[in-house]
Design goal:
By secondary structure, this protein is an alpha/beta fold. It has two domains: about 5-100 and about 155-235, Glucose-6-phosphate isomerase like protein, domain 1 (Rossmann fold); about 245-285, no CATH class. Helices cover about 40% and strands about 15% of the residues. The protein has a five-stranded parallel β-sheet with strand order 5-4-6-7-8, with helices on both faces. It has a three-stranded antiparallel β-sheet with strand order 1-3-2. The longest helix has about 35 residues, at about 205-240.
Length: about 290
């Protein structure tokens, strides 16, 4: 995972906050100074919080769970859509559907209804309905796709939310709090960082700043997904480990023998894992030996 430098954050304008008159006092620990009536964010603390958030979100992605991206402001829509699609995560860039989390069952019904409309287009049902009904269904489908199309693959509640501008997305924050869903967010100087679990102090208005932070978080998610694939590959490689004779190797240990043989090796049996001990020297053998 790439670590951002001060220069990269400065070039992106991550340090620019809001006017002093619009600040939230709870952001005081993250503010470096005031200049020309504008608060400037302490980038040292931004880097620390970025690392914390990236490591946490990587672990969530490694567990195979979904992270929902939320950004409905104009300058963040395209950036979040691009990055969320790149890592295969659901996203919301239009209006936040009320009850998206707290009333998830109803939202899933709407998604299934939308899928039903798509099926009608492919199975020939459209050919058997009137032109008026066809037009109504098409309009409804377009509206639903705009609002819910990006979450059509979300079959259960997301494991976490990544939000751009928590003041604008306050409903999403409240719903996540109610369900104890972890939240990651870019928090500007006019917001309350205590509302989210992993606040990232930074400029949530400049497109370049948003792009830099969202890209870093998406990279962390991608790393988590790759870690999960590597873990599975290692498990598959170790599960069926066999020696050249096709016998599963369980363990080999040495045991003391109290008579002529000083040590003897215990080997694993074929199918049952039965332990076969070597016969002592001088012990009677089977008939015919």
């Amino acid at each position: 995972m790439q670590n951002l430098t001060h220069d990269e954050l400065l070039d992106a304008g991550v340090h620019f906050g809001h006017l002093k008159s619009k600040w939230n006092p709870k952001m005081a620990p993250y503010i470096l100074m005031e200049k020309s009536g504008i608060h400037l964010i302490d980038l040292n603390k931004t880097i620390v919080k970025l690392d914390e958030a990236a490591n946490a979100i990587r672990q969530i992605a490694r567990s195979g769970k979904k992270i929902l991206f939320v950004a409905t402001k104009k300058q963040a829509k395209d950036i979040v859509t691009l990055e969320a699609k790149r890592v295969g995560m659901p996203y919301i860039t239009e209006r936040w559907p009320g009850g998206m989390l707290t009333n998830f069952t109803t939202v899933r019904k709407s998604v299934k209804k939308m899928a039903g409309f798509e099926k009608m287009e492919t199975d020939g049902t459209f050919a058997n309905i009137s032109k008026k009904e066809k037009l109504q269904i098409t309009r409804q489908k377009i509206k639903m796709e705009k609002l819910l199309g990006s979450i059509s693959d979300l079959s259960r509640l997301p494991a976490a939310l990544f939000i751009v501008d928590i003041s604008r997305e306050h409903i999403a924050v409240k719903e996540a709090q109610k369900l104890n869903i972890p939240t990651f967010a870019i928090v500007d100087t006019n917001s309350d960082p205590s509302l989210v679990d992993f606040p990232i102090p930074g400029n949530d208005d400049a497109a370049k700043s948003i792009s830099l932070i969202v890209s870093l978080m998406a990279n962390a998610i991608e790393d988590g997904i790759n870690d999960r694939k590597n873990d599975r590959d290692i498990e598959k490689a170790t599960e069926g480990t066999e020696d050249g004779s096709g016998v599963k190797v369980i363990n080999t240990v040495e045991v003391e023998d109290d008579e002529t043989t000083p040590t003897a090796t215990v080997t694993a049996g074929k199918a049952t894992g039965k332990v076969l001990r070597p016969r002592r020297a001088g012990a009677p053998g089977k008939k015919g030996e």
